[in-house]
Amino acid sequence: MAIVNNPKTLDLKDIQGMVVRGYGKLFQTAYFLLKVEDASNAKSWMKTILPLVDSADISDHSEKTLHLSFTVQGLQALGMNKENIEGFPVPFREGISTPNRNRILGDYGDSDPKNWRWGSGKESFHILLIFHAKDKESITAFLKEEKDRITSNGGLRIVKEMYGYLRPDNKEAFGFHDGISQPCIKGSGRSGPENDMIETGEFLLGHKNEHGQYPFSPLIHSSQGNTELLKNDAAGSGKKDLGHNGTFMVFRQMEQHVDDFWEYMETNSLKPDGTVDEEAKIKLAAKCVGRWPSGASLVNFPKKDPGGSLENDDFGYADLDPDGFRCPYGISRVISS
Length: 337
What we know:
The protein has ten helices and eight strands. It is an alpha+beta fold. α7 packs across α8 (278-289). The chain starts with 27 loop residues before the first strand and ends with a helix.
């Protein structure tokens, strides 16, 4: 089979919406961790919620969205056979609570899996549901509908519920404007600065990445189900590609020490007489985060926060700040790029 180039236009109906966009106007979020207790009933439940799962071709996200994902244990519980499970990459099959992953990710001390609120040695889960809605009333009604659907089905059990929200000012917990410079997937219909346009395969399986290669995608090694619904492996193996237009996601709940962060910034930017230097404190924090609290770039505005200016975001660190004098090398460049 000939290897083809990435399509100029993706099949957006086959891609979950959150892969290509955020939901900055849907301020309430919730997460259900589900466990499959009866595979047949669970599959029936999935058929009923599929029309609700948000796809990338929907332009109106003013009310609510739903997203669906599976763990490797979930695929096993739903009946995927061993040969096809082994077609997934090792990190997905291994999970993030094994000793090997703990070493790689630095999960020790307070972050040791034995201290986690869920996952690890706690009860495993099989399916993750992600909800977004515009306000508390909407999310409450949405969750009640889906809880009733799950309960009446009998094939699933809610292991854990978690809730979150976006601040109306679009700032994250530390007080910095969030979600500014986001990559745009080629073929998704979204446009942006040239530096923000990313090859499809950096996010979606079954497409070439920035290196002109196809990322590792789970293939069907042992015939199971209606494989005619699946695309052929674009890399030319001759097998069906289970991962086509899908992606992998890491879902972790992490504690953020906001007070400790700002205490450190204040302590390390005091005036010679020991009093607080508010301007120096903010600048030090911006140097660590990579942007000013308003969201403005340190590369474009190295001396002072312009206060709300998000313009001129089309820049390159190598072109304007090769030595890291404006935006220091290190974690700040990872966070802000």
